[in-house]
Amino acid sequence: MANIIEMPKLSDTMTDGTVVSWLKKEGDVVESGDILAEIETDKATQELECFDEGTILKIYVQASGKAPCGHPLCAIGEKGEDPPKVEEPVAKPEAEKENKGQEEAKAIQAKAKSKTTKSPPAKNPVQAVNSKQRSFASPLARKIADEKGIPLEAIKGSGPSGRIVQADVIAASQAGIKGIPAASVPLEEKITPVSTIREVIARRLLESKTQVPHFYLEKEVDASPLLKTRVALNEKLKKLGQSIKLTVNDYILKASAEALRTVPAMNSSWEGENIRQHGSVHLSFGVALEDGLVTPVIRDAEKKDLVTISREARELIDKARSKKLTPEEMSGSTFTVTNLGMYGINSFYGIINTPNAGILSVGGTFKKPIVDENDNIIIGNRMSVGISGDHRVVDGAVGALFLQALAENLENPAIMMV
Amino acid sequence: MAIITYRDAINQAMAEEIARDSDVFIMGEEVAQYKGAYKVTRGLLEKFGPERIIDAPISEAGFCGLGVGAAMMGLRPVVEFMFWSFCYVAFDQVINNAANIRYMSGGLINIPIVFRGPGNGGTNVGATHSHTPENFVANTPGLKVVCPSTPYDAKGLLKSAIRDNDPVFVMENTLLYGNQGEVPEDDYVIPLGVAEVKKEGSDISLVAHGRCAILCLEAAEVLATEHGINAEVVDLRSIRPLDEETILQSVKKTNRAVLVEENKPFCGVGSQICSIIQEKAFDYLDAPIKRVSSIDAPQIYSMPLEQEQIPNIERIIDTVLEIA
Fold first, then answer.
1. Which of helix, strand or coil describes residue B162?
2. Which residue among A151, A392, B7, B256 sits deepest, i.e. has the most Cβ atoms within 10 Å of its Cβ?
3. Which residues of A are marked as active site?
4. Interface contact A115, partner B, CB < 8 A
């Protein structure tokens, strides 16, 4: 008997997967532990390991083919054996979800129909909008339509004398919202199952915010030198034919690593009995994804120059966005940087990414009137940096020293070159 | 629990209250020696004697006035009408005096009287013997009126009526007298003004009283099995005081209502309920409120025609299908 290898369910939220590539082909002899294929899920690309021995008799889903969880991918058996016949995979998730919503409407409609002997059947619940037409609707239908923001003129009634009843409004809201002017499209109530990544974020941050005594400090720094240096360096890199382009964030990462070298106490962790001051800076930074947030780690950041940090950060961001970060690349941080400057945020305070002793929060750079050393009001480029510190590990003074060191680095980018 | 008839349930209620309270007595045409035109007072004369079970002359105006006077003096008369149709002879006593004495006396004089008897059509007794005057009574401030549909309700409501300090009109139904049902042997009362959901449902509310509540229960079964409609049946039990809350709750749940009663439609009980629903549950209505009542004409003597005149299961079902 041939064994069928099915599309594995690699996460709680996975409904289907794509075969990225087959590493074995039909006729290949495989044994337990061999990697058969690469499977892409909603989160990452993972390897499909073989737990059987034998010959691959048949591959049912070709490379780049999509199949629901549980659908046969290949058959492994004795050489020469006939593979079991399998139907084509049906990619179903979206269609299925849609049906579910409509089924409810249909059920209500069916109920209305089965009970209504004298009324015409409801065909298309949404028709062209004609604002001059008087629509007859039951008070309940009127109320629900109003709540859902659906103009009655857009609904065809299935009740007695063509009256719009509750079932018609519900059917219209589920089936034909497109026929309705955008201005009146209502906010839709939506239930999203908590994804694994969301669940991890929820658990870890709740833990941190409830168990770690956060304190908060904020400092405004002069970003002009940094902006100037960045432009100059990027021009230079371009001339050198380097594809790399330094970002403000790269400077902040480098400046943070340097500041942690100056104030190593900030690079510590609470371990209950002990406080551990780490021997190197493993610098993690937040990357926003569509469905959550990940924090990849740049190892030994204090030993790396700006260009190396920039390159590694770029790689990690790309991996994060294509969901290819390995667990190792996301663990073992000693300090975290989070930056909402690109969203136009002035300043904010992050929740500590335990077991770090602190998290640096970086706002955007804004032009502001400032008073210079000669008491003249000039236009300054100001950036706000904040730190949330674990008060069990460090006190406000340590946090302040850290922000001071950071500000010095950011305001004198040249010293980071040494 | 004992299974007894609606007739015996009323008999038990009166017997228990006469035994419980020495102020209670029964008066009416042929209630004693003849045991009642419909044998509702059977055995009571033998048990309680002619001082408590009193045969009255054929003069409703006379013995109803006597009853109101006795109630003014503190007794608790239970006055039987052979038919409620005959109360019209005593309109001044029952609708005018009984209703207004407490108010006119500045609250000094209560009228703890019960008027009871069958008030229904459908028995081929002609236009002058088939009235259902619960709407007249309910239209009169100062009067209370109940229309029990089951033996259990009949006994519980009649006992409440006898103990109540205001005039309470109990309207029975000759077609229900023989119906059987479970009735506890223990003393119990059903408070006035409390409706009962006799059958839970989700698609439409059938609101009825008296025998029409029984018809609604039968119609609900047909609606469920043949039309897939899950009807809720609300039995008002009391017309006044009226249990608005139960009616509104039911309509808010089902979004549709059919009001069923044997009254003639014009200014019937259903008119009042219709007004209450549209006023207090307007935004819950998914269809117009419909009414099933007797057809608006003097009671027809022809038996087959009369069966079509009063509400019947077919008419209830047809009306439900118009809006559900």
1. helix
2. B256
3. 391
4. yes
pLDDT of residue B156 exceeding 80, the answer is yes
CA distances (Å), B126 to each of B170, B196, B298, B301, B303, in order? 22, 32, 9, 5, 9
Catalytic residue among B17, B29, B60, B262: B60
What residue segments make up the domains of chain B, in order of their start?
A: 2-183, 196-323
Walk me through the domains of chain A, giving residue ranges and CATH numbers: 3-77 (2.40.50.100), 100-184 (4.10.320.10), 197-417 (3.30.559.10)
Of A115, A118, A140, which is closest to B255 when you measure between CB atoms? A140
Q: What is the pLDDT of residues A324-359, one digit of tens each?
A: 888 889 889 999 999 998 888 999 999 999 899 999
Share of chain B above pLDDT 70, in %: 100
Kind of pairing between the strands at A297-298 and A283-285 = antiparallel
- What is the nearest CA distance from A167 to chain B, expressed in angstroms? 9
ipTM over 0.85: no
Look at the pTM and tell me if it is higher than 0.80.
no
Look up the CATH architecture of domain B2-183.
3-Layer(aba) Sandwich (3.40)
Q: Mean pLDDT, to the nearest integer, of B183-201?
A: 96
Q: Give the chain B residue whose CA is nearest to the CA of A110.
A: B228
pLDDT digits (tens, 9 = 90+) for B212-271: 999 999 999 999 999 999 999 999 999 999 999 999 999 999 999 999 999 999 999 999
* Backbone torsions φ then ψ of A281, nearest 5 degrees: -100, 110
Q: How many helices (H) and strands (E) does chain B have?
A: 12, 14
Provide, as residue numbers in chain B, all residues whose Cβ is less than 8 Å from the Cβ of A138: 255, 285-287
- Distance from A160 to chain B by nearest Cα, in Å? 7
- The answer to whether residue A293 scores a pLDDT higher than 90 is no
- B218 among known catalytic residues: no
Catalytic one of B16, B129, B218, B244: B129
Mutate to test the interface with B, among A111, A115, A146 (most CBs of B within 10 A): A115
Distance from CA of A169 to the nearest CA of B (A): 11
Nearest by CB to B283, from A139, A159, A163: name it.
Answer: A139
What per-residue string of b and e applies to A143-154 under the rule 16 or more CB within 10 Å gives b? bbbeebebbbbb
Asked if A117's CB is within 8 angstroms of B286's CB, the reply is no
Question: How buried is A293 (Cβ within 10 angstroms: 0-12 exposed, 13-18 middle, 19+ buried)?
Answer: middle
Query: What fold is seen in the domain B196-323?
Result: Rossmann fold (3.40.50)
Q: CA triplet A153, A157, A158: central angle to 5 degrees?
A: 170
